[in-house]
Amino acid sequence: MAVASLLVEIKWPLVALLIALYAIRKVISYNRLRQFKGPPGTGFSDIPHSRAFLSGKCHEWYAEVSEKYGPVARIAPNVLITSSPEIWTRVNSIRSPYKRSKWFYQACRIEYGRDNVFSQIDDDAHEKRRKQMAPGYAGKENLELEPNIDGCVKDLIRLIRSKYLSSDAKVTPMDLAQKIQYFTLDVISLVGLGKSFGMLTADTDVDDFIKSSEEGLHVANFCCALNISWLAQLPVLGPRLCPSPTDKNGFGKMMATAFKFVDERAAKPVDSRSDMLASFIRHGLTGDQLRSEALEQVVAGSDTTAGAIRGILLYVLSNPRVYDKLQREIDGAVRNGQAPPAPEIISTAQAKELPYLQAVIREGLRIWPPVADIFPRDIPPGGETWTVDGQPVFIPGGTNIGYSAVAMHHDRKLYGDDAGSFRPERWFERDAEKLAAMIRTNEMIFGYGKFQCLGKPVAHIEIAKVIFELLRNFNWGLDNPSSPWKTTNLLGLFVIDDMWVHVADR
């Protein structure tokens, strides 16, 4: 009884002490970054940021925060976001001491206890892996890279022409978002794994790869939003919580499909220039490393490029002036011999010589960045001093800093008062200094410095060829211009569907 009585007596003082300690901790946390403004509650709680993650529209929230609170704003007790190209360049430069933030990139792990080049937070391991993989992505060790992409473009044209042509007598709706996803997956599996998934030929989601990937992204995004991804890395829980190739859905089912392709390719000769996987093997990747990188390559490589192509096409189809101008350049290129006659596909070198096509691509990537999440880095332990709005500001070590892609690429100071509008002509800016700044910022869409996307060269080849050939071969119209698609942002990758169009032969 004496013990029970004592517990009753100390209960409320103990509760009060715990509350006081909690409050003190929150105040200290708030004060570390008190010089930065942000939405209500972000100095004390992660809830506003978590809510944005769960909404599937975090890129819009980041842009709104940056617009209201300036080039560096606070979005959580220990998280800042910037829209400044200068700051983000400094953070990501080759010799930068900034490292990837564990809470975000841990959620990007697909397998238990195993990182890929995107999720790796150790700088030395990340740099080593990039060096092993870069030759394969650059195309120097894959002499069939462009012909393989050409073959997939032809498959896409063949599919549309055989099943989805509309006429005055009948409209045959086609989900363009779906077909573009089939295209990018066929490309990355062919050039990356040595064998196409065959989605364009089958006109279906082979092995439910897309469905499984989207299920996995939803789970990963949820765990990241609530900061519970670390549970999947615990020795006891991890193997049970993380995806497995024996799973019937989600990332696990996707892993089984990708691993099957990897193992089949690894059993074949890799001593000659062929696909990316062969290059990875020649540069030292083996076994589980190879499977992990191939898996990440297929997921990220297809989704980002598909998002870029969809975004560019949506804005072209929504803008009759741009559509007509681009169509005239394409038709002129064919007529003047700047592009081969159909059914041959325009080469990368030829596409680069078409100025309006290149301006449309740059502007499409700017207005709709295909990868748009915070991608946070850790401020070095000693802290850093930045210049914000002309004033030096000290940032304590351990703070996370991410960026708003939409705010950066819609910046009115850089792009003008019409930065929110789709106007490819801005890339013919006569002020050389301003144009150079615009191009530098635009190049950051696929990352920068030591974190630049390895697949950028392949993505640009795909984008130019598809845009040119789809407009060369067909006339396009949106079925529902007022609601042209449905989009969800999951860890920066856009899940896009219901992009219904009607297509007519030219």
UniProtKB/TrEMBL annotation:
The keyword Transmembrane helix applies. Keywords: Heme, Iron, Membrane, Metal-binding, Monooxygenase, Oxidoreductase, Transmembrane, Transmembrane helix, Virulence. The chain crosses the membrane at residues 6-24. GO terms for molecular function: heme binding; iron ion binding; monooxygenase activity; oxidoreductase activity, acting on paired donors, with incorporation or reduction of molecular oxygen. CDD domains: CYP57A1-like (cd11060). One of its GO terms (cellular component) is membrane. It is a single-pass membrane protein. Pathway: Hormone biosynthesis. It holds the Pfam family p450. Heme binds at C453. It is found in: Membrane. Its main location: membrane. InterPro entries: Cyt_P450, Cyt_P450_E_grp-I, Cyt_P450_sf, Cytochrome_P450_monoxygenase. Its cofactor is heme. Belongs to the cytochrome P450 family. This is Cytochrome P450 monooxygenase ABA1. It comes from Pleurostoma richardsiae. The lineage of its organism: Eukaryota, Fungi, Dikarya, Ascomycota, Pezizomycotina.
